[in-house]
Amino acid sequence: MNIRAVIMAGGSGTRFWPLSRRTRPKQFLDIVSSRSMIEETVARLLPLISPKDIFTIADGSQTAALRGLLPDLPKRNFLVEPLARNTAPSLMLATACAYLQDPETVIAALAADHLIRDPDRFLNKLQAGAKAAHSGDRIVIFGIPPAFPSTGYGYIHFLREKGKRIGGEPFFPVLEFKEKPGRAEAEHFLADGNYYWNSGMFLWRADVFARKLRRYAPKFFPLWERMLDALEKKNQKGLRSVFEEIPALSIDYALMEKAKGVLVCAGDFGWSDVGAWSSLYDVWPLDEAGNAVKGEKLVLDSQGCLVYAPGKLTALVGVKDLIVVDAGDSLLICRKDLDQKVKDIVEILKKENKKYL
Amino acid sequence: MNIRAVIMAGGSGTRFWPLSRRTRPKQFLDIVSSRSMIEETVARLLPLISPKDIFTIADGSQTAALRGLLPDLPKRNFLVEPLARNTAPSLMLATACAYLQDPETVIAALAADHLIRDPDRFLNKLQAGAKAAHSGDRIVIFGIPPAFPSTGYGYIHFLREKGKRIGGEPFFPVLEFKEKPGRAEAEHFLADGNYYWNSGMFLWRADVFARKLRRYAPKFFPLWERMLDALEKKNQKGLRSVFEEIPALSIDYALMEKAKGVLVCAGDFGWSDVGAWSSLYDVWPLDEAGNAVKGEKLVLDSQGCLVYAPGKLTALVGVKDLIVVDAGDSLLICRKDLDQKVKDIVEILKKENKKYL
Predict the structure, then answer these.
(1) Are A157 and A174 in contact (CB under 8 A)?
(2) Same domain for A154 and A20?
(3) Contact state of B330 with A348 under an 8 Å Cβ cutoff
(4) Are residues B203 and B301 in the same domain?
(5) Which of A300, A312, A328 sits opposite B344 (nearest CB)?
(6) What is the distance between the alpha carbons of residues A279 and A97, in angstroms, rounded to a whole number?
(7) I need a labelling partner for A162 at 20 to 30 A (CA). Which of A111, B84, B102, B179 fits?
(8) Which of B240, B272, B304 is the last residue of a domain?
(9) Does A315 reach chain B within 8 Å, measured CB to CB?
């Protein structure tokens, strides 16, 4: 069985402003460790997948930065989208590349900017998932057992009774994908026990992916065939024209929500999508007063703060539950429970045509 | 009448850390306007006193910086203390220099780092004060009508009934200097009406100063004579040895508290000693939500903050009554009512032998 990891490394994060910028999205930041998130993502795969089988996909503006951070990957493994068009086009392209080499290649479509606290368990699940994807006409998705009634994730409703073990791990048939719910619905999902968060991490065999597209996403199938054709002929113009036409949809919306034969596997390996600054508060080490500080610190009567200011001294005096981020040309001081507003700041900066983005 | 301004420009501020440093005390900071405080101090004197009669006094480590900021003053006007030994030795030296040129010179001893909101009124008072000092055997001090029962200033108790007008302004005989009081005493001083804050700004004729020293500070008088002698002979070594011996006392403690014949004049010209970061909140312009920001800002649901971060964008989200100061290598985040703790930070940094001082 041939497993190919495809790391989706495009997209520009806005929720880690002022650190994340157009040209420096979240996956390039050293926010969960001393390495960037994309380096962590690759490093945790290495015990299972060799560098020649680890690919990234992003638009061309990121290629140089990605190659710089991941020098052990072959240069041809940095796949380039002609245009950034959401995850459906991007994963179709990455899968098409694999299909042309070996239609039975198992693709592990992974995010570049997720945190996984238990990488060994993750690799076990990944291996079992690959086996499940390889052995039948099905797509595998990692679902995260919900830790609280989040209204920020999509959910996957599955049939627990029809679970089966593959490679030692349980897999359940997916009944339905649910969009981000309201609070009441989220509480119902949590209480029900048969809902997982959608992690956005998938496994499929390239030929199975093609079959599912033809059957459940018929609008996309001709575009898939044109991609294959353009790739075979190394026709960059042709590939670009596909990307100009293709709907910019997520793979969830384009295919997963419609497809039959999707299995979910519990992603109970300490997953976090590190969605905003405050999520790092659970990741970074805390001092006695419960402050998480990257950089030198001097703390007087202060609790619960998260500070990112490497290379400088931050003095906190009598403050509580603040997020402080120094990004050189800009500084964020934010109440910790209001970090969702960081997106608003980015919107305002865009409208005002300001730098700092 | 010859008036000579002597601006006390030594001392290293600690209350404006992280902006103020050993080599960059408060008077060098652009915290009240776009110019440094020492530049403001000199500029407000110019309508009355020409540059040739404006002197600074500080220890030698500051001379280059002072000359750089005040290029219009003659080079010889930057007086140098052989050692930094508090204000009594420093003002004795500055007065001795004037005495040797003209014993009847009136010295206006001024601080380098005070804010004066009404400079015209200040100059009128200064002129009247110089007249008062020149015409009799007396020292003049500016007293600040107290705005609240401060426990942070010394007070001057004066005899209102014996006031007299000189140069159009009222002067009152000083009864007693009071050290920084407790809260109850401060409230009594305020209610009484015959107490002013000690501004630390004085006027005296050089020869009168000498006479007062001989009579009321007899331990200092021989040192004064040795200063005169060393200055006359340009004996730097001799001057240094005086500074090595002389008690490091304030002029208030060494002379003023003991002297008779001291008049106080109301310094009702919008004075502030700008004692700590929060005092700037009353000086800087406020936005609609009551934030005072030096630098570019983006404010969401935030009130009452004071931000010094010139040259960068500061985004405030849901925060209230904070002091935020970015000094490049260090960052202060402090509850606005706790800015007195900044001194504690400096003490801690000293003990830990850290840079950032």
Answers:
(1) yes
(2) yes
(3) no
(4) no
(5) A300
(6) 35
(7) A111
(8) B272
(9) yes
Cβ atoms A337, B320 nearer than 8 A: no
Residue B355: predicted pLDDT:
86
Radius of gyration of chain B (CA): 21
Residues B128/B167, Cβ–Cβ less than 8 Å? yes
Identify the pLDDT of residue A22.
83
Alpha helices, H only, A200-328: 206-216, 221-232, 236-245, 251
Q: How many CA atoms lie within 13 A of B328 on its CB side?
A: 7
Domain that holds residue A340: 277-351
Residue A356 located in a structural domain? no
Residues of chain B by 3-state class (helix, strand, coil), percent to 5? 35, 30, 35
Q: Which B residues, 12 through 41, put their C-beta within 8 Å of a C-beta on chain A?
A: 18
Taking phi over 0 as left and psi of -120 to 50 as alpha, with beta for the rest, A223 belongs to alpha
A62 plus A184 within the same structural domain: yes
* Mean pLDDT (whole number) for B55-65: 94
> Which amino acid would we find at residue A344?
D
Is residue B263 domain-shared with residue B332, that is, in the same domain?
Answer: no
B89: domain CATH number? 3.90.550.10
Count of residues for chain B?
Answer: 357
The answer to whether residue B356 sits within a structural domain is no
Q: Are residues A225 and A117 in the same domain?
A: yes
pLDDT one-digit tens code per residue, B277-326 = 999 998 999 999 999 999 999 999 999 999 999 999 999 999 999 999 99
Contacts of B287 (CB under 8 A, 6+ apart): B293, B297, B299
| B357 domain residue, yes or no | no
Count up the domains in chain A and report the number: 2
Contact A205, A133 (CB under 8 A): yes
> ipTM of this model?
0.86
- Measured in whole angstroms, the distance separating CA B48 from the mean position of its chain's CA atoms is 19
Residue-averaged pLDDT of chain A: 95
Shared domain check, A238 and A311: no
Local structure of B313: helix, strand or coil: strand
A300 touches chain B (CB under 8 A): yes
- The reply to whether B134 and B236 lie within a common domain is yes
Confidence of residue A14 (pLDDT cuts 50, 70, 90): confident
Last residue of a domain, one of A212, A244, A272: A272
CB-based contacts of A278, cutoff 8 Å, min separation 6: A306, A323, A336, A337, A339
Average pLDDT, chain B: 95
- Give, rounded to a whole angstrom, the gap between the first and last alpha carbons of chain B: 43
Task: Answer whether A345 sits within 8 Å of B318, measured CB to CB.
Answer: no
DSSP per residue over B167-225, as a string? TTEEEEEEEEEEPSP-HHHHHHHHHHS-EEEEEEEEEEEHHHHHHHHHHH-TTTHHHHH
Mutate to test the interface with A, among B317, B319, B329, B337 (most CBs of A within 10 A): B317
Q: What is d(CA B355, CA B357) in angstroms, rounded to the nearest whole number?
A: 5
Answer whether residue A357 is part of any domain.
no
Q: What is the pLDDT of residue B335?
A: 98
Please tell me whether residues A253 and A114 are part of one structural domain.
yes
Distance CA B317, CA B303 (A): 10
